[in-house]
Specification:
By secondary structure, the chain is an alpha/beta fold. It is built from 9 helices and 15 strands. It has 2 domains: 3-200, Rossmann fold, CATH 3.40.50.170; 209-313, Methionyl-tRNA Fmet Formyltransferase, Chain A, domain 2. It has a 7-stranded mixed β-sheet with strand order 5-2-1-6-7-8-9. Strands 10, 11, 12, 13, 14 and 15 form a 6-stranded antiparallel β-sheet that branches. Strands 3-4 form a two-stranded antiparallel sheet. α1 runs parallel beside α6 and α5 packs antiparallel against α7 (220-229). The protein is elongated and about 70 Å long.
């Protein structure tokens, strides 16, 4: 008999796992639980979550409680009586009495190698912090924040130029078979639940708008990590002549800048100072490093190449970002 599963999730990250489980003969998705329809986008049009769209396409019952801690939700889970609940980026805290209902527990797929990066933004934070490796962990949830016992994990290298959306998409696909393998292992009794070492825990809180503001005193590599890790929101930005602008660029090594006319030598240019060299636009950063500017988008304008920006702004010596 197939395992009866309730699937809880909301964003696109959860969709590959839902679709994968639906395709397996030994699982039966009896219901999908997702966040209520919300206003989204600039127009604030009410729209469905990606998980709801996938569930409707598959003809699965969808339940959208405003608060999953409610009495109505408790009665729903008791009535549905799942063997396991799979929960991926659902977006609400689960109460102890709900956790106790399925015999195999609530199986969570988390986007980090726990106990590192507990919290809402593990993928973004790993890139921002310059991690070289990351991965996925399945665990049984408990009353804490991503602190339950570990089940299985998947480890991977973070590409040197990989952005948060790219890593997000890659991990979401890799998570699907990991969730299925975890459920099968729990049912067969072949998985050992491993407690997390709380002393090794780090946290990945939600991103804030102001985190996108570039600190030019950081090294070019640190700034590049933020550019990659803060996509698609809030993005990396700075100010130029009193206006905010979104920034895209990558580190340029000192040997590459050494021969450029006007390039920074011996820290002669202050962080944020920009200059044109060999038809390129370069910004001085901390520790004597430099960022090769690729694209700029002034507030209220379209995105343009760095050279188009420099020519349009009539960049002059001493012009600074972040001043």
């Amino acid at each position: 008999m197939p395992l009866r599963i309730v699937f809880c999730g909301t964003p696109e990250f959860a969709v590959p796992s839902l679709r994968y489980l639906l395709a397996q003969a030994d699982f039966q998705i009896v219901a999908v639980v997702t966040q209520p329809d919300r206003p989204r986008g600039r127009a604030l049009a009410v729209s469905r979550s990606p998980v709801k769209d996938a569930a409707i396409s598959a003809g699965i019952t969808v339940y959208q409680p405003e608060k999953i801690k409610s009495e109505e939700s408790f009665e729903f889970f008791q009535r549905t009586a799942p063997d396991a609940v799979v929960i991926i980026a659902y977006g609400q805290i689960i109460s102890a009495r709900l956790i106790a209902i399925p015999r195999l527990g609530w199986v969570n797929l988390h986007g980090s190698l726990l106990p590192k990066y507990r919290g809402a933004a593990p993928i973004h934070r790993a890139i921002i912090n310059g991690e070289k490796r990351t991965g996925l962990t399945t665990m049984n949830i408990d009353a804490g924040l991503d602190s339950g016992p570990k089940l299985l994990r998947f480890e991977t290298v973070i590409g040197p130029d990989e952005t948060a959306p790219e890593l997000y998409a890659r991990l979401s696909e890799a998570g699907a078979p990991l969730v299925a393998e975890t459920l099968r292992g729990l049912e067969r009794g072949t998985i050992t639940r491993v407690p997390q070492d709380d002393s090794q825990a780090t946290f990945a809180p939600p991103l804030k708008k102001e985190e996108g503001r570039i600190d030019w005193s950081q090294s070019a590599q640190e700034i590049y990590n933020r550019i990659r890790g803060l996509q698609p929101w809030p993005g990396a930005f700075s100010s130029f002549r009193g206006k905010n602008c979104a920034i895209w660029g990558r580190p340029i090594s000192p040997p590459a800048t050494a021969g450029m006319p006007g390039s920074p030598r011996d820290g002669s240019r202050s962080p944020g100072e920009s200059f044109k060299a060999d038809a390129k636009v370069v910004v001085a950063c901390g520790d004597g490093t430099a960022l090769l500017l690729e694209f700029v988008q002034l507030e209220g304008r379209k995105r343009v190449t760095a050279l188009e920006f420099a020519n349009g702004a009539r960049l002059i010596p001493g012009d600074r970002f972040g001043g």
